[in-house]
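Each field is set out as follows.
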Amino acid sequence: MKYKITLILLLIIVGASTAQMRKWTLQECVEYAVEHNLTIEQFEQDLENAKIDKSDAIGGLLPTLNASGSASKNVGFTIVSTSNVPVAGNQSTFNVNGQVSSNLTLFNGLRNIKQLQRAKLNAISSQYRLDNLKDDIRLNVANAYLLVLSGKEQLKTFKAQYAVTEQDLKKTRELVASGVLPQGDLLEIEATAANQEQQIVNGEGNVLIARVNLAQLLQLTDYENFDIAEEEFAIPPSDILKNSAKVIFDNALTFRNDIKFSESNVQLAEQDLKIAKGAYFPTLTGFFQYGTRYSDATSPLPDGNGGTFTPNFTQQLWIFDGISYGAQLNVPIFNGWSTRNNVKRSQISLEKAKVQFEQDKLALENTIQQAYVDVSTFEKAYEAALKTLEARSLAYDYAKERYDNGLMNAFDFSQAQARVDNAKADVIRTKYDYIFRLKILEFYFGLPISLN
């Protein structure tokens, strides 16, 4: 029994540890961020409200139907509801009234139809806004993910360099102890090791900050147990630069959600102007009403045979019912210029929406032009960093050979090593800078974010 309990506890601990050490891939981070972002949830709620507005607009085209009823007890002077005859004195009467009515807007300058069209456009616009937010989150998550990767690779490089320096430090101590090298060489190597230790500490801090930033984008709070998958990425093959910046921009105009959202705002402003102008027209409303009533003070009625009878409750409801129907026309003549001013405001809003649309297109074009230049620039910077690293590595190998043979002092050797360290860091930095700029440009061309 104790063995079984121990085994179960061990499985629980192992399972919990495995869950805590989950490594997130880029795709998992992007999907999680899109599904759990609070701003996205708010925009989704706005989209639901837009759909409700559409339902309201459809209801505005349908007739209304309402029913009402009342029952009252009157003491003293009153008017009999079934005959409109006044009754004086201290008499008590009981009255019942019921009514069903319906109204339908026959014409109001087509505002109800335009309102429905606007509601449909607003639902589409809200969807564009939501999709655009998701696009921004995907880019931000990809950038934050690459920053973690870059920090991890730099940290590995720092640790590998420190391991080599430790070997040099051990060897230098032996040579100093045997009198082959002066004490100053040992101090120089020790200073280099201390500097590399500081680089490792700073690198670990940078990785931690990058992980926290990524976790915050995912809106996770367990920073200590959050990490990304241990994988290295080479420069992905891409033919994006075979397209000109103009081609990429023209293609982006056809699918970018921010452009569609801006364009839909122009269409909404156009509908608002049409709705405002509709207030210049008369409003024609049709109505229908059915009502009936009962009173216990009703006078006797002829029965058709020369006699009279006092109708009961059900009989009165049938006898005293009635129908009214017709149409009502309201013609706007003067309303303190409110309609005219609303039209002017709508015209201004339309012009502002058009200007904003042109600004958004210009901003997109500038962004794509910058992204296009960045890809070319960072590609060249990465290639230059590789060449620099190759040259620094050859120089370091030569310096190490001379140092090992006592032909170079420790200071010059440490400088050669520092130059290699810096070159390796530049390769990693420019590599991920290039990858991210490449992915941005592909994203604007309509390609999904992927590091494969």
